[in-house]
Amino acid sequence: MYTFSSKLKTFSIILMVLGSVGVGIGFMSSHKSFEDVEHLLEAEAHHGGGHGEEASHAAPTHDAHAKASHDDHGKGHGEEVDHGDDHKKHVEHVMHQIHNRPWSALYVAAFFFMMIALGVLAFYAIQIASQAGWSPVLFRVMEGITAYLLPGGLIVLIIAFFADSHLFIWLKEGMTVEGHENYDKLVAGKSGWLNKTGFFIRGLIFLGGWSLYRHFSRKFSIAQDTAEDNSNYKKSFRIAAGFLVFFIYTESMMSWDWIMSVDPHWFSTLFGWYVFASMFVSGITVIGLITLYLKTKGHLEFVNENHLHDVAKFMFAFSIFWTYLWFSQFMLIWYSNIPEEVTYFITRFKDYQLPFLGMVALNFVFPILMLISADYKRVPWFVVMAGLVILFGHYIDIFNMIMPATVGDRWFIGLPEISSIILFAGLFIFVVFTALTKAPLLVKRYPLRKESEEFHY
């Protein structure tokens, strides 16, 4: 049985404490008044523009969407522009972006760690449903990682509930009320789906279904250790097949609700698959990193370089798959050049060029260079280095999905973002390694165990 070392436990608790303090400071420092933001913009303009000049030209974010349709019919062509009113709106717009930042940073980190657990759960189910012979020696590592799914998913929903319109513009007052200053015709047309009640009911259904599968698959896995027949193995196979059907639908809907709806004016039919690729490769990467960590501590002696090679092979393959989906989504939208679609990429090329293009390099170029060789896939430190690059790249991917719609050009990777990562990294380590102590690290009577232990490539 694995024992959660006191050093690692203390480290995870320290991360959670430091992260919580940093998140708290981030929220306090973001509550700037109208006058504070006015002085900030004046200082930026005085020092050569920066955000102060760019903000008025930036692609629409939350508040721009909210007032777009109202402004269209509030002025006639012959009327003089009220510069004082424009200035007030601009300052308020920037003020809202600054207020949104700590909520967005917290949400990005919470979703990132939740999606790792969900990606591992899907990978685990695929291994069982396909009766894979190489992976059973890693099942307990996968089961430990998926223990984070329920608390992590609930945290995402709690953040979404309290963040409200700081994250989701369609929750802003009056968005669906014709005649209201915030009325948005497009959002009103989607209100049958995009409403708070439906959002959280769907979220609980998604999370409930995933957690139920995790509960029963874990139950059957442990029961199989002491069983006299393969009945638990057969049950695991059947529920894995059923779960994968449920997952493929709910993962897409979750992607629409929890990520794509931050910008309700934009949509992509590829988005569900795109998010899936990101969560899948991140989950597989974490399986590899935790496996290598446990091996350095003298555990998992039955895991050999061939298992590591296969994990790294999946990391490489799904990095390529992610790139294929990224390019397909980008190319189709760029080629069709439909205004409401290209806005998504214009915003990212204008205000997020470094993280947007940087994450393509991190998620494609680095895995290609580092993992294309079969020999490199067997070198632990090389796989760890590649894994850390991949995880950072996919955090930036989620960052790029959320931040442009909520904070516009007011983004920065500073205290709110780093503290949020530290907070959830600490919680993730605590939950996962606690779960690893609950059962032996090797499945005992799984029918394919022997094949897995003797696996060679």
Describe this structure in words.
By secondary structure, the protein is mostly helical. It is built from 17 helices and no strands. Helix 5 runs parallel beside helix 16.
Average pLDDT confidence is: 89
Rg to the nearest angstrom?
Answer: 24 Å
What composes the largest sheet? none
Helix content: over 70%
Structure classification? mainly alpha
Query: What is the chain-wise order of helices and strands?
Result: HHHHHHHHHHHHHHHHH
Which percent band covers the strand fraction? under 5%
Unreliable spans are 50-81
How far apart are the first and last residues' alpha carbons, in Å?
28 Å
Give the CA-based shape. Answer: globular
Number of strands: 0
Q: Count of DSSP helices?
A: 17
